[in-house]
UniProtKB/TrEMBL annotation:
Membrane topology value: Multi-pass membrane protein
Organism: Candidatus Borkfalkia faecavium
GO cellular component, one term: plasma membrane
Keywords of this entry: Cell membrane, Membrane, Transmembrane, Transmembrane helix
PANTHER family from the UniProt entry: LIPID II FLIPPASE MURJ, PST FAMILY PREDICTED COLANIC ACID TRANSPORTER
Name assigned to this protein: Oligosaccharide flippase family protein
Transmembrane feature ranges: 5-26, 46-64, 85-110, 122-140, 181-202, 222-245, 302-323, 375-395, 401-423, 465-485, 491-512
Alphabetized InterPro entries for the sequence: Poly_Biosynth_Transport, Polysacc_synth
Localization terms from the record: Cell membrane
Length: 531
């Protein structure tokens, strides 16, 4: 069942929201059960895991969706792409799992927590499983079917939460054992998600293997640059797990606990808007790729995805900036006293990242859809370089401490966003004054000598992106002001008041024009007409 660009974005975003809600309900009691020390060990294991996941699977959903969408747009069956990807990335994921098993002892000793080795071993099989999961998700998304991705993400989080909290409670007397078995629940959840995706692919009544497969070289040529772009950030997180802990410990600070608050609680909360906007990033890749394969530019989809990202992430960042203490006190009730104040300060310091990371993520996906994933990789690499340099300079300053990691993260995402904007404008000749839905992407839309044709209405200039950003920022500030009194009573009342005020202002001042809404309707009508 195919969906349009907006339908796909909504489905993946809804699945992402459901998964993140489950993840939040999981993280909050898990933090209460494991405490700062246990969460520090829990988070220490994730950077290497995320790095291996990136090498094995990070570029697969976006890269495969681009290949599959092009094949489907040209009328070529795409099941061969799936079979080829399963063989290639299954082998890469298996190698990643074996590497994690072999490196468990050495890496945990390097991090200063030898007892974490067992946790690494419990999590290692997930690398192989996620590599296969990514192949299925990329294949479904390239065929404009985003429902399996949403269902598998939600089911994955549900299984992880149920098993993880059970294990953490049963083994709560031994924090290291509780962490190890909580990570075993991650492996079990990935296995469940993989079986679900296999079951969803079977109704096609065709074998998973198909002889008409693309050459391995062509698959890697698309996915490897995307993996490089996605892998830079997990690599920096692995460096963080070593750099932050060692620099803080040198200053006599409880480094493991503070790193756990930063990476396990503050970063998770601030990254939530980017997770919600992931649906836009996932949907824009096949939409742009298919449009370009048919001779268009995909410019309207790119502009609309960026505008929607700002619409969602700006009010979230404003709310976290204004009410970090109330939010953390509600979500992380066991983190009180000095640790609670530290966590609230970290959330406030990281709040700009809520919008910077979301916008950088969406533009990276747009560059991938346009066939320029190397530009996205360069942008994130430059951001990470700035981040590591700032961490090395700030973490050693006693007056700054762990907040140096927060400021460095903000700078990282800002640099990545600005460079992604530069590459998008330069590569597609985006006119700065027409960056709204009606903004044009000129020469980049050409395939051969054919260019996307637009009617007079589509050529009309829309508001520039910076104007949309300022308008959403003003709406966010007014919404936060409306929430100030209700938030004193309870943060949920404040959230409801802020959300209601923001939506009312958006409707009253027409955040989305009639042309933008009619564009969505035309896309759906055109899809139904053409079958």
């Amino acid at each position: 069942m195919k969906q349009s660009f907006i339908e796909g974005a909504v489905i993946v975003s809804a699945g992402g929201i459901a998964a993140k809600i489950l993840g939040a309900f999981y993280r909050i009691p898990l933090t209460n059960l494991l405490g700062g020390q246990g969460m520090g060990v829990y988070q220490m294991v994730y950077p290497l895991y995320c790095l291996l996941l990136t090498l094995a699977s990070a570029g697969v959903p976006a890269g495969l969706s681009r290949i599959v969408s092009v094949w489907e747009a040209r009328g070529v069956p795409s099941r061969g792409v799936l079979s080829r990807a399963l063989l290639l990335f299954g082998a890469v994921g298996g190698a990643g799992s074996l590497l994690m098993l072999a490196a468990a002892g050495g890496v945990s000793a390097l991090q200063g927590e030898p007892a974490a080795a067992e946790a690494y071993r419990m999590l290692a099989p997930s690398v192989f499983l996620v590599a296969l999961i990514s192949c299925f998700r990329g294949w479904f998304q390239g065929r404009h079917n985003f429902l399996p991705t949403a269902l598998s993400e939600t089911a994955e989080q549900a299984v992880k939460a149920a098993l993880g909290l059970s294990f953490a409670y049963v083994f709560r007397a031994d924090v290291y054992r509780a962490v190890s078995y909580a990570l075993l629940s991650v492996t079990a959840s990935e296995l469940f998600a993989l079986l679900l995706l296999v079951a969803l692919s079977l109704p096609a009544k065709k074998p998973l293997y198909a002889p008409a497969s693309p050459p391995a070289k062509s698959v890697f040529r698309v996915t490897l640059p995307v993996a490089a772009a996605a892998g830079v950030l997990p690599l920096s997180h692995f460096a963080d797990s070593v750099l932050i802990v060692r620099l803080l410990a040198r200053a006599g600070i409880d480094a493991t606990a503070q790193y756990g608050l930063f990476a396990g609680a503050a970063s998770t909360l601030v990254n939530l808007p980017a997770s919600v906007c992931y649906g836009l990033a996932a949907a824009v890749v096949p939409a742009v790729s298919a449009a370009r394969a048919q001779g268009g530019s995909g410019g309207r989809e790119i502009a609309f995805a960026l505008k929607c990202t700002l619409f969602v992430s700006l009010p979230a960042a404003a709310f976290l900036l204004a009410f970090p203490g109330q939010t953390c006190a509600f979500l992380f009730r066991s983190v009180a006293g000095e640790e609670g104040r530290l966590l609230a300060g970290l959330v406030r310091a990281l709040s700009p990242s809520a919008v910077l990371l979301a916008a950088a993520q969406t533009l990276s996906a747009c560059l991938t859809g346009c066939g320029r994933p190397r530009a996205a990789a360069c942008s994130m690499a430059a951001g990470v370089a700035v981040k590591l340099a700032l961490e090395a300079a700030l973490l050693s300053v006693p007056a700054v401490g762990i907040f140096g990691a927060a400021y460095a993260a903000d700078a990282c995402y800002l640099v990545a966003l600005l460079l992604n904007l530069y590459y998008s404008i330069r590569g597609s000749r985006l006119r700065a004054g027409q960056s709204g839905l009606a903004g044009k992407i000129g020469a980049a839309g050409r395939v051969g000598s054919h260019t996307e044709t637009r009617g007079p209405q589509a050529e009309a200039g829309g508001p520039p992106i910076w104007a949309d950003a300022l308008r959403f920022l003003l709406f966010s500030a007014l919404a936060v002001g409306a929430a100030w009194a209700p938030a004193e009573a309870h943060v949920l009342w404040g959230l409801a008041a802020a959300g209601g005020a923001y939506l009312a202002l958006s409707w009253l001042f027409r955040a989305f024009s009639a042309e933008e809404l009619s564009f969505i309707a035309r896309k759906k009508f055109r899809k139904r007409r053409t079958g």
